């Protein structure tokens, strides 16, 4: 899907791809038949049977995009035995998905507030690739980074298509240094702004793209909405974006999802425990003991994240950090890929 979204003629600036509803009143809505999603001269005229997995909104010219989305024309084949259940797939991948061996070159970027983020580039690409090669910035999910298998596989796939790839490791993730008490959050796009500006200065002749997963996707879409008409990115992909963090929080605490909530809370605890000296003697509403013992993501956010970014409660933080409020301002070509079983909507 990454390849499909970036090939072909340059897309119009007002294009949004997304699988959410309801869409704005001014949006152009199109449902596409998977049987006709092949690049052929008669393709556009053949779109007679609706396909529920694709909507084109925001004034996009579908004839520029749909012929290159070749995956829509192929049947979905679930992974044998485990593909019938999303939880089995997730757990299986976390334990058995291969970790590609990629040599990375790290550069830390200092932010205006004294914070630090780590940018991991593929070693040797600065010599191997032409200076005008397209650049892809990867934004992993909550607590994720360049050490994760899903990030490595996307990195290799993009490189095989000629992209220069860099992984944006947020503060504390993938052993990125934490140099200020301010962590990162779903609402804060300042670090991404610095990263995009930095990467653009390194490769001024290249088109810049970005792909984000989960919380990284939420941050990416918020950034696109904030930058709106002046966004320097040529295109972006949002994968498994929660969009509405209030609904995501509620869903996180239901049924088997508690397993993921506890796992992410443990990862957050591990990050903060490595940097406890930064949080000693914190005054005000900070509750560091709550964060270091958090059993859920919400408990961690209540003790640290929401205070760092000026919110009165975790609920207020979630309500004001959702990318569902930002997507209507996006003017960069954007492909959003969601699971039908995610339960999130705009």
Automatic annotation (TrEMBL):
Gene3D superfamilies: alpha/beta hydrolase. One of its GO terms (molecular function) is short-chain carboxylesterase activity. InterPro entries: AB_hydrolase_1, AB_hydrolase_4_sf, AB_hydrolase_fold. Pfam families: Abhydrolase_1. It comes from the Eukaryota. Residues 134-269 form the AB hydrolase-1 domain. Belongs to the AB hydrolase superfamily. AB hydrolase 4 family. This is Embryogenesis-associated protein EMB8 isoform X2. It comes from Punica granatum.
């Amino acid at each position: 899907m990454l390849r499909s979204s970036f090939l072909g003629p340059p897309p119009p600036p007002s294009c949004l791809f997304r699988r959410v509803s309801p869409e704005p009143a001014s949006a152009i809505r199109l449902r596409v038949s998977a049987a006709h999603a092949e690049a052929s001269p008669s393709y556009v005229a053949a779109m007679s049977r609706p396909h529920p997995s694709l909507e084109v909104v925001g004034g996009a010219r579908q004839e520029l995009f749909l012929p290159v989305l070749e995956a829509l024309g192929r049947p979905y084949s679930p992974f044998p035995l485990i593909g019938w259940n999303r939880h089995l797939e997730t757990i299986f991948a976390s334990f058995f998905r291969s970790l590609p061996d990629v040599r990375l070159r790290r550069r830390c970027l200092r932010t205006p507030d004294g914070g630090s983020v780590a940018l991991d580039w593929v070693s040797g690409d600065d010599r191997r690739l032409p200076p005008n090669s397209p650049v892809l910035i990867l934004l992993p999910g909550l607590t994720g980074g360049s050490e994760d298998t899903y990030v490595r596989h996307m990195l290799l796939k993009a490189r095989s298509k000629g992209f220069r790839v860099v992984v944006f490791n947020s503060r504390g993730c993938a052993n990125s240094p934490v140099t200020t008490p301010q962590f990162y959050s779903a609402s804060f796009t300042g670090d991404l702004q610095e990263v995009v500006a930095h990467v653009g200065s390194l490769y001024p002749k290249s088109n810049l793209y970005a792909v984000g997963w989960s919380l990284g996707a939420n941050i990416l879409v918020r950034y696109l909405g904030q930058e709106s008409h002046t966004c320097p990115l040529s295109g972006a992909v949002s994968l498994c974006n929660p969009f509405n963090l209030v609904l995501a929080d509620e869903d996180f605490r239901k049924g088997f999802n508690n397993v993921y909530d506890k796992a992410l809370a443990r990862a957050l605890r591990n990050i903060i425990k490595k940097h406890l000296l930064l949080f000693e003697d914190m005054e005000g509403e900070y509750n560091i003991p709550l964060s270091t013992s958090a059993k859920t993501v919400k408990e961690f956010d209540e003790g640290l994240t929401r205070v760092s970014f000026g919110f009165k409660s975790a609920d207020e933080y979630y309500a004001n950090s959702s990318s569902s409020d930002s997507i209507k301002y996006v003017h960069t070509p954007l492909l959003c890929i969601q699971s039908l079983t995610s339960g999130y909507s705009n």
